[in-house]
């Protein structure tokens, strides 16, 4: 079973956490309420709950949400309009690198409480400059490999291939390269201000309301 954007629900049930919940937990107050945008099957949401955070999990796939144990909302991120704000809003999976991520960032901003933090995962510029076919690794029992990388100005197209238990899945994507000034300008367009990088690899950062 696949979602509208080509994600395999079965695959996502096999992918384990990779420390994402701990990154969020270290960046926000204890017990902070978290809005998890694009939660998938809940692998990050469940980790955050175990660390003491109430989580509202959002995805546009009912099949993905069926695996989530947190409070669930079925919605596209761009269309989400809840009547409350959150101490932290999580935007993982490099969604900010989508060719047009402005509507997604607007959703982040309108659900962020005053004094709250947006926690965002992105591909830094260096990744776009150096990544090659064959890049990847292993996450739990799932092998991951990139192929078909093609660059066109600030856009990169590729296919990510997953393998596990003798099966394979493929999903193509397009990502937009953002340097630091472009990132800060994009955030500013949503009323957000870059705060700081949260990991030594600079693949996660926090932002706040301006």
From TrEMBL:
Molecular function (GO) terms for this protein are: methyltransferase activity
Provide the Methyltransferase domain boundaries: 34-116
- Keyword check for Kinase, yes or no: no
Matching entries from InterPro entries are given as: Methyltransf_25, SAM-dependent_MTases_sf
Q: Where is the signal peptide?
A: none
Against Pfam families, the record matches this protein to: Methyltransf_25
Gene Ontology biological process terms, A to Z: methylation
* Gene3D superfamilies attached to this UniProt entry: Vaccinia Virus protein VP39
Q: What is this protein called?
A: Class I SAM-dependent methyltransferase
Q: What is the lineage of its organism?
A: Bacteria, Bacillati, Actinomycetota, Actinomycetes, Pseudonocardiales
